[in-house]
Amino acid sequence: IIMKKITLLFLAMLIVPTIAMAQYPGKGTIDINAGIGLGHSFSGSGGIPINVAVDYGYNDDVSIGGYLGYLGNSEDFGTGTWKYSNLVIGARGTYHKQFVDNVDTYGGLILGYNVASAEWDGPGANSASVGGIIYQGFVGGRYHFTEKLGAYGELGFGIALLQFGVTYRM
């Protein structure tokens, strides 16, 4: 139910025209997104994924930047504790195209590295980790309440399938 409500809110951000400034200003613009995610696939973990992305306006339609996402959690089983973590770090390129008035809509690609680990802290202590190069696409939108502050939502790759939070434009 919560996932449906958040998905509807995200779609409303992309569909409903508003009166605030949101068209992508282009070259030299720096946008910083910070938020949480829903729909992660890191099995066994019930933690809340957090993420930060920075986009720098390379030209009037394209931005380049970085992405960092983290998910960590632990579960106590009485005789020991499982600890889980997942870290995604990467570079991203984004193409901005205004499909909706006053909403900065965009799509892009990420290329990075994913490191996941699980550790048993109890009898027969054990741990495992795995990592690898990742690449995938995403779509999103930013709505600015003021010239500097707004909200964003992204669907696609990251530490979670759906990411949303605040955005700050420098």
Characterization of this structure:
The protein is mainly beta and 170 residues long. Helices cover 8% and strands 59% of the residues. Strands 1-2-3-4-5-6-7-8 form an eight-stranded antiparallel β-barrel. Strand 2 and strand 3 form a beta hairpin. It is elongated. About 5% of the residues have low confidence.
Short description:
The chain is built from 1 helix and 8 strands. It has one helix spanning 2-15, and strands at 30-38, 50-57, 62-76, 81-96, 104-121, 126-144, 149-156, 162-169.
Mean pLDDT rating: 84
Helix content: under 10%
Distance between the termini: 35 Å
Biggest pleated-sheet summary: 8 strands, antiparallel, barrel
- Counting DSSP H or I runs of 4 or more residues, the number of helices is 1
C-alpha Rg, in Å? 18 Å
Unreliable segments of 5+ consecutive residues: 14-22
**Count of beta strands:** 8
Question: Helices, strands, pairings?
Answer:
Layout: H1 2-15, E1 30-38, E2 50-57, E3 62-76, E4 81-96, E5 104-121, E6 126-144, E7 149-156, E8 162-169
What attributes does this structure have?
8 strands; 8-stranded antiparallel beta barrel; elongated; mainly beta; 8% helix; 170 residues
